[in-house]
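Can't attach files on this board, so I'm pasting raw text. These are the components:
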Amino acid sequence: MTDTTVRAALSRDRILQTAVALADREGIGGLTMRGLAAELGVEAMSLYHHVANKEALLDGLADAVAAEMQDAVAALEATGDWKHDLRGRILTAREVMLRHPWAPGVFESRTSFGPHIVRYTDALVGLMRSGGMSHDLVHHAMHALGSRAFGFTQELFDPAGSADEDASPELLMQMAAEAPNLVEMLAHIAHDDPGSTLGWCDDQSEFEFGLDLLLDGLERRAERERLA
Amino acid sequence: MTDTTVRAALSRDRILQTAVALADREGIGGLTMRGLAAELGVEAMSLYHHVANKEALLDGLADAVAAEMQDAVAALEATGDWKHDLRGRILTAREVMLRHPWAPGVFESRTSFGPHIVRYTDALVGLMRSGGMSHDLVHHAMHALGSRAFGFTQELFDPAGSADEDASPELLMQMAAEAPNLVEMLAHIAHDDPGSTLGWCDDQSEFEFGLDLLLDGLERRAERERLA
DNA sequence: ACCTGAACACCGTTCAAGT
DNA sequence: ACCTGAACACCGTTCAAGT
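---
Top answer:
Structure tokens for the assembled complex are below.
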């Protein structure tokens, strides 16, 4: 009960904070109970006094990221235009996600909500409700947005992992026979923007394209609902 | 070189086929190299003569599912309406995915394309091109669709895992204070459709809602492009 | 060429024991 | 109450040896 407690006292918060830093540094594969404990200067089993098991640790990690999103989003001011405000919140959430490349995978593997995730989600629902959308439409909207509501889309076949060899002309030749449309499209894209070497395309602009497609569609349904 | 070879001769195909059946039966967590080998009546290390490692096995699994999708999709006849045909292909792909609940997770963790995945994707691109969309727009469309092009969306916080306890009134009460909009929405949904007990909502209709939102939006952009 | 068995270097987690 | 160390039951994978 005094301020002179040992500086390194273990706590759930300190564990989560260290786990986030470790995952940022080494990727989610580098986050093991043993490794996390070592990082904290403690034995692996000590963690189990503050966290039920690894699943619970990951739940905590996801919620820690959601807390960061809440902080970032709090700085935004509301304009009263739900679509504009929603777009801003989601793109801000994305900035947080980009700081934690492992977070999308963890979010997708979660099965329960932490308090910060709940509050972030609640705010999105409130924003759409304030725009006059029905509960039903908002519900559809949340499902349609899916992970985009949290600022990410899990890229299918992310070329980042194997882009180096995949771009080889031999493989493109081999593909050309079986996938003429795909090859033609990729050639066209490469021609248009030869500078996009971090993957085949600009993730950010693709994210915004998909997001705007959905937001525009939702706005249309909302208007249709209002006139009914 | 004779037909009287031992019936149980190991081969890449037989390994993949058994792996799919095993994953269907026990989930992806039940698919281990050791377990798969046992299922084949063979030692674990024998698998490594036909498959480089587990990553390669999973690559093969994803492509096996894509092959099934190709088969299912081949039965569809083209109407010439790209949007209608694309919708049909994707919903057919979804039927295959629903037979393999582990497949979405495997698809999302892949980093390289198998031949069947490539051909399935190529057909989608061809369909949109036939509708007059530019390479650029088709490229955006593929990104916007993302995993939906393969008939699935990875549900965030799938309540299937913990729905039993999560629906408890105490927890809803506790949530009500911090998440009024969310609670109100969920209450409204439950009121509208008290029968939807497999999760909070009907995945199929939510999938189609999101898909149609995107397809409608793409159609609009395609028309805009045509007039430009 | 194909398959085997033992072994290695990891995991998450249980348990009895320490302070 | 909190932390430890050894141990258990798993993984994927390497390696030398069998046929």
